[in-house]
Amino acid sequence: MDSVLKLDVQRIDMTYDDGGKSFTALSDVSFAVEKGLFVSILGPSGCGKSTILNLFAGLVSPTGGRILLDGEPISGAGLDRSVVFQHYSLFPWMSARRNVELAAKQAFPEKSSAEISGIASGFLEIVGLADFADKFPSELSGGMQQRVSIARALAMDSEVLLMDEPFGAIDTKNRVALQDLLLSLCERGAEKKTVVFVTHDIDEAILLSDKIIVMASGPGRVQAEISVGFKRPRDRVSLVKEEGYVSIRNRIVSLFYADIADKIGGGEVVI
Amino acid sequence: MPRFLRPADIAFAAAIAVTLFYPSAGGMLSGHAAGLLILVQAVFIVRRIFGKDREAVVASGDALFVVYVFLFSWELAAAKLNVLDSFLYPSPGVVVKTFIDEIPALLKGLLSSLRLLLGGYLLAVAVAVPAGLYFGYKRRLKLASKPFAKVLGPIPPLVYIPYAIAILPTFRAASIFIIFIGALWPIFINTMNGVSDVDKRVIDTAKTLKLNDRQMILWVILPGSVSSIMSGANIGLSFSFILLTSAEMIGGTSGMGWYVKYFSDFANYPKVIVGIVFIGIVVTIVTFFFDSLERYLLRWRK
Asked: In chain B, what is the greatest distance between 2 CA atoms, to the nearest angstrom?
């Protein structure tokens, strides 16, 4: 496994000032994301996992500690990192094609509009939306909108792909389709992208990841780092039969619910 | 009641019957009134045959019912029973005939009015939208401009009219200035507020795409505030019409407002009514185009 660090989180704290009261979202969080790996940040709501993604995206800065990208501290957003959010990622006043073209043009300002248009068409085709390229986001379902967001992120051809619960609001059937799409996208191509994927879905994290950062809340902190070594290409049906799947899943479940049990008074939780 | 017979049809029949067959004093021009009724009913029938939206057709039928009852009562009171003084309350037929005769004069007035209206209004849009976008985007400018908007915005621009006429060299310049001031504040304030209503998550996305200030304002802030800008522009347009006609009535020598004021001074009430109806028609047409523009600009919304 390549062990070059793409993102290095060094003892970060994140405190918000909320009308005189301060709120600690992250406390002493450290972990690393190796180049080319698919890393999930898994945790219950309120554990600061989305905050970490916003820090990676350069939308906010930590109040303590530092985050290195390729060895340099992150300062602001950059076209070397593309982001897929859960909601409202697309510009609603632009067609699917325009949304993708805009991102491609930002990433490749030197390319002609014909080339940009070709890139957009290509990625919309890959995510299965060639026939919907000229629709506005409001005319697309939630799942289709996320496909456009993925096409947009891919069109930028950035080294790092940041995804913040991208399938969180999608119904089960479409979520499975999108997970499979993402799985196949991550496994093609010579130079693999580094992906940071925020989720609260344990099975989704195991299916997609090489490494899972399990977080706990109040304040947000890293609880465990778990390597997921199943061979690729993976598929969801045979994966659950792999040796070790159940033990990884059980370990995450117990971490997850131990945290919740702490929150409600330390007693036993019957699941 | 059968589907093809609506309340509007019955009211139409009553109105046309009383107009045509009830004897009236001379000079009431009931034929012109009947012509108007038939024209309106013909448009309604065409709409009923070709209209796709049944609910809208029913609604326009209900509205026409009120119109017919009004025309029926007016005709009966002014032209037939003579309970209204025909000098102060001309009959519908007289108003229709006057309207037709006055079309050239009305169009001339319209042209004169539109020159002032468009001059002042478009100038206000051209200043208020870019300024509102930029001030809304730069928080410090926004906060600095708030007190001005709060104090100057609510002053009814009508009160500027006499002073503006006094200090500006021509009536034309004074009117354009007043319309400009009147339309400026609602458009500016709404645009500025629209900027803060743009979804923060959309702005975050724009930041991750590294849009520069110009791209951010043109591609994200402007389209994101269109809804708010258009409601400000709509208020500004209503103000513009009020200010335009008021200015013309106070100091004008032409235009739609002047027309109404001029003939009031001569107690020519048929022309006064014609002038008022004409202004109503013009405002309706302008509003129609404005609404179409708004729908087009917001076509991406569900």
From this structure: 79
Q: What is the pLDDT of residue A174?
A: 86
Q: Report how many Cβ contacts below 8 Å link chain A to chain B.
A: 58
Alpha carbon of A100: minimum distance to chain B alpha carbons (Å): 11
Q: Between chains, do A91 and B220 touch, taking CB under 8 Å as contact? A: yes
- Which residues in chain A have their CB less than 8 angstroms from residue B209's CB? 77, 79, 102-103, 106
CA trace torsion B180, B181, B182, B185 (10° rounding): 110
CATH number, domain at B104? 1.10.3720.10
The range of the structural domain enclosing residue B18 comes to 7-89
Tell me how close the Cα of B222 comes to any Cα of chain A, in angstroms.
10
DSSP 8-state class, residue B195: H
Q: Label residue A265 by pLDDT band (50, 70, 90).
A: low
Single residue among B27, B60, B89 that ends a domain in this structure: B89
Question: What was the pLDDT predicted at B218?
Answer: 92
Neighbouring-strand partners of residue B39: none
What's the number of domains chain B is made of?
Answer: 2
- Residue range A22-64, pLDDT digits in tens: 888 999 999 999 998 999 999 988 888 999 999 999 999 999 9
- Average per-residue pLDDT for chain B: 91
Residue B204, domain member (yes or no): yes
Residue B114 in domain: yes
Residue numbers of the domain that contains A208:
1-80+159-271
